[in-house]
Design a protein that fits this description.
The complex is a heterotrimer. Chain A has a domain of 138 residues: 3-Layer(aba) Sandwich (Rossmann fold), CATH 3.40.50. Chain A has 11 helices and 11 strands. In chain A, helix 4 crosses helix 5. The longest helix of chain A has 17 residues. The radius of gyration of chain A is 19 Å and the shape is globular. In chain A, 45% of the residues are buried. By secondary structure, chain B is of the alpha/beta class. Chain B has 9 helices and 12 strands. In chain B, a hairpin with a 2-residue loop joins strand 4 and strand 5. Chain C is mainly α. Chain C is built from 11 helices and no strands. The radius of gyration of chain C is 22 Å and the shape is elongated. The chains are: A alpha/beta, B alpha/beta, C mainly alpha. Chains in contact: A-B, B-C. Chains B and C meet through helix 2, helix 3 and helix 4 of B and helix 7 and helix 8 of C.
């Protein structure tokens, strides 16, 4: 169909092990992932399948009791980041890869104004940025995510925002440093359906307009079907199937994928119930 | 007359903050649920759908209006009679773990409604019925002595359902019973609920925000928006031919798991041609 | 009616030993100390004085040395556990006995509970240790007054704890479920609310014992409560404090160490109980 676009992220054999009081667990066991330019790749699976741990592992966002190994994690423009030290990762996160987490209120600092958070972010990555300049940029970014009257939001705090608004602010923050790649971990879970549609339209618009790419983790097959080009289906820490959304969602090959898609209630049809 | 008759119910909550406006959660809501029927209430957060579910069981008191269940006006029942009536009307909550006492064994949790309403049955008979109900909802008997924390989310919700049906209620409020469950578990629980209803002809009031779920399980749907029911219609009719602009907005925000069906979301602007379905290539 | 089904119990204690060596050591220490003070033969009579052997340094004859009156410090430290620990336990029991029902009353919905909390605020505004001191000395150093004093300080803590726990539990889903199922108020309280409060009450009880040990020592140090010649840790610290300056550290030192270890032991136990109750049920 279309020519192979430039590869933005190439993960080979990613594994995560976590030491718990009850022994070592391996939530991710050898995952391969590729994200190409301009593409939205969905990672789908049920709780405990390792989908969130996978993207946190790539960004080294897991706690000190975890070990991440990979044959390689190739990020366009940065080479293999699998061996990067925390200090080096700090230059990647935010600038090369933006991250949107599930709970926007967990991502926003409750005691800083929104304006301050834009300033802190820019100060961390660019020397000599002035508060005035930062505010200009923040205003533009908030306009860009569809916030009308950004001044009020900038002067306010996270708790004054609704869930949808807060997630817009997080998206604005995540894209402020113009990363080429966005990671989104269940960005709309817990939001109302209409707000979810607005947020997803916004994120996918940001990706399409600026030639970005996105890795979108979700448990919602509707989000995959409606917003992603390719899908990675995970089960038990492994990738069981991946391919174009059309192929995988319409004619799934792996029995787990078939069962998962069959569990979506369709009116007038019997539920595909695995016992 | 319907089994459940909710007529013109009003509920206003005091303002959260001093000086704030009171929250008008229910502004004159009327709804009927028949024996063996599932009526879904859909709406977004703040629409009042959960408040209606609780009011229907008098877990909260309403300001005015009437709620009759099997002919009994429950809004005015005095404490003792209301407690006895609760054997006939039960609830399954959204949070499977939080709705179970973490210190009681599964068997003891399921037995409780019988201990309250049918103490004359005696320990042996109650035990027997608990094991029967556990079998019916697909819980192995060995789990009777487990604690809720030792079960998976799906199993915890089966416990919640077992507890709700053991007193053989005629009316069940299901408050987002599958929202916190994984997709495959959700399907199992929905199938179980449908099966139980077929057997016992219970009336279900199914509170949900998930269009896929309500489309599958309900006979009729009531759409709530800002404390009012804006539309009530048989499920098929509501999906094929939504009458109210807000219903159309909700439907357009529904994300089909089939990539060949593209739904274009449109904000609630009152336009009549909101839903666009096109088939075509996804890439 | 007895429970139709019961959850297995018993492995709690084994897990406690395995996962909390600190608490296990603490409990063993307290048990040993109590046992020694009650039944074991002491090397010397703890109240016998001997002017000829006063202020001897720790050695083979007197393991912990002797005090100014020539009494054996080791025997006195062990013997003091008898009175100090008993008073602490009695004070804690009284605090529990008063604190639990009052705490339950304070967590009701009515106006009464609000008044109770107001009264508590006013009461706790007093410096309670000084109030305790006054009470005990005015009573003419009656030992039961020491027990009352401990309760005075700790009952408000139980009330506050119960109130905050129960108020937040009342909001939980399983309480709503119990009401929806038709449970009576007393059933909700005794079957659903209280069993979920015991864990935190046990933690508080362990902390209360530790606190009581310190209160008793403080009172004895100030010369009220347990009076000479009955050995008490606080009294020994007071007696030995004067000798510290001249280098005889062992009198106050070993008594202080006993208080320290007891408090540490009960704090460890509180930690372990808190940890266990939090984890078993989640």
């Amino acid at each position: 169909m279309n020519s192979v676009a430039e590869t933005i992220l190439d993960v080979r054999n990613l594994a995560v092990s976590i030491a718990t009081p009850d022994g070592v667990v391996n939530p991710v066991k050898g995952v391969d992932l590729t994200v190409r330019k301009g593409e939205i790749v969905g990672v789908v699976g049920e709780s405990g399948c390792g989908k969130s741990t996978t993207i946190k592992g790539v960004l080294k966002l897991l706690g000190p009791n975890s070990t991440v190994t990979a044959d390689k994690i190739e990020l366009a423009g940065h080479g293999d980041i699998s061996g990067f030290k925390p200090r080096q990762m700090n230059t990647i996160r935010g600038r090369a890869v933006g991250f949107v987490a599930q709970n926007p209120f967990g991502s926003l600092n409750p005691i800083y104004t929104i304006e301050r958070q834009f300033y802190e972010l820019q100060k961390a990555h660019r020397t000599g940025v002035s508060k005035r300049e930062s505010r200009e940029i923040a205003r533009d970014m908030l306009n860009g995510v569809g916030i009308v009257g950004p001044e009020r939001v900038l002067n306010g705090y996270a708790h004054q925002l609704s869930g949808g608004m807060a997630q817009r602010v997080v998206i604005a923050l995540a894209t402020t440093l113009s990363p080429k790649l966005l990671f989104a971990d269940e960005p709309t879970t817990g939001l109302d359906a209409t707000v979810q549609a607005q947020i997803l339209d916004l994120i996918t618009g940001l990706v399409a307009d600026e030639g970005r790419s996105m890795l979108l983790v979700t448990h919602d097959l509707g989000v995959i079907a409606q917003y992603c080009q390719r899908v990675v289906v995970m089960y038990g820490g492994e990738v069981v199937e991946q391919g174009s959304v059309m192929d995988v969602m319409v004619s799934p090959q792996h029995s787990y994928t078939q069962q998962l898609i069959g569990s979506v209630p369709k009116s007038g049809e019997k539920l595909n119930v695995a016992r | 007359m319907s089994l459940v008759e909710i007529t013109d119910v009003v509920k206003t909550f005091a303002a959260r903050q001093r000086g704030g406006d009171p929250v008008r959660a229910l502004r004159g809501v009327s709804l009927q649920v028949n024996e063996g029927e599932t009526v879904a209430i859909i709406g977004e957060s703040g629409s009042g759908k959960s408040t209606l579910g609780k009011a229907a069981l008098r877990l909260i008191d309403v300001d005015s209006g009437s709620i009759r269940i099997d002919g009994d006006e429950i809004t005015t029942l005095e404490t003792r009679a209301l407690r006895a009536k609760r054997a006939d009307m039960q609830v399954v909550f959204q949070e499977p773990f939080e709705s179970l006492n973490p210190r009681l064994a599964i068997g003891a949790i399921i037995a409780e409604p019988l201990q309250i309403h049918r103490p004359e049955l005696g320990t042996t008979e109650i035990r027997k019925q608990v094991l029967q109900v556990m079998d019916k909802v697909g819980l192995p008997a060995a789990q009777a002595s487990r604690l809720p924390g030792e079960l998976s989310g799906g199993q915890q919700q089966r416990v919640g359902i077992a507890r709700a049906i053991i007193s053989r209620p005629r009316f069940l409020v299901l408050d987002e019973p599958t929202s916190s469950l994984d997709l495959s578990i959700r399907a199992q629980v929905l199938a179980l609920l449908a099966e139980l209803q077929e057997e016992s002809r219970m009336a279900y009031l199914f509170v949900s925000h998930d269009m896929h779920t309500v489309e599958w399980i309900s006979d009729r749907i009531a759409v709530m928006y800002l404390g009012e029911i804006v539309e009530t219609a048989p499920t098929r009719q509501l999906f094929d031919n939504p009458g109210h602009a807000y219903t159309r907005t909700l439907l357009s925000a529904r994300l089909s798991a089939d990539p060949r069906e593209r739904h274009a979301y449109k904000a609630f602007a009152g336009d009549t041609t909101v839903r666009q379905v096109s088939t075509g290539d996804a890439s | 009616m007895p429970d139709v089904f019961a959850a297995p119990k018993g492995r709690q204690f084994r897990l406690l030993v395995k996962e909390h060596p600190g608490a296990t050591m603490g409990v063993s220490f307290i048990a040993l100390l109590l046992l020694a003070s009650l039944v074991a033969p002491l090397p010397y009579d703890p109240t016998a004085t001997d002017g000829s052997s006063s202020l001897l340094a720790p050695g083979a004859q007197h393991w912990f040395g002797t005090d100014g009156a020539g009494a054996d410090v080791f025997s006195r430290v062990i013997a003091a556990a008898r009175i100090d620990l008993s008073l602490a336990l009695a004070g804690t029991l009284l605090s529990l006995g008063l604190g639990l029902p009052l705490g339950l009353m304070a967590s009701g919905k009515g106006k009464g509970s609000e008044w109770l909390v107001r009264a508590l605020d006013a009461f706790q505004a007093f410096p309670l240790l000084i109030l305790a001191l006054a009470l005990v000395s005015l009573s003419g150093n009656k030992l039961y007054m020491v027990v009352v004093a401990i309760a005075l300080i700790n009952v408000p803590r139980y009330i506050r704890l119960m109130r905050s726990e129960i108020l937040s539990l009342r909001e939980s889903r399983f309480i709503e479920a119990a009401i929806a199922m038709g449970a009576s108020t007393s059933r909700v309280t005794f079957k659903h609310l209280l069993p979920n409060v015991w864990g935190i009450v046990l933690v508080q009880t362990s902390l209360t014992i530790a606190n009581a040990i310190v209160v008793i020592a403080s009172l004895s140090f100030l010369g009220v409560g347990v009076s000479a010649p009955t050995p008490s840790w606080g009294g020994m610290i007071r007696d030995g404090a004067g000798n510290m300056a001249s280098g005889e550290w062992w009198i106050a030192g070993f008594a202080g160490l006993a208080v320290l270890l007891c408090v540490l032991a009960f704090n460890q136990l509180a930690d372990a109980i808190g940890d266990r109750t939090a984890r078993t049920y989640r």
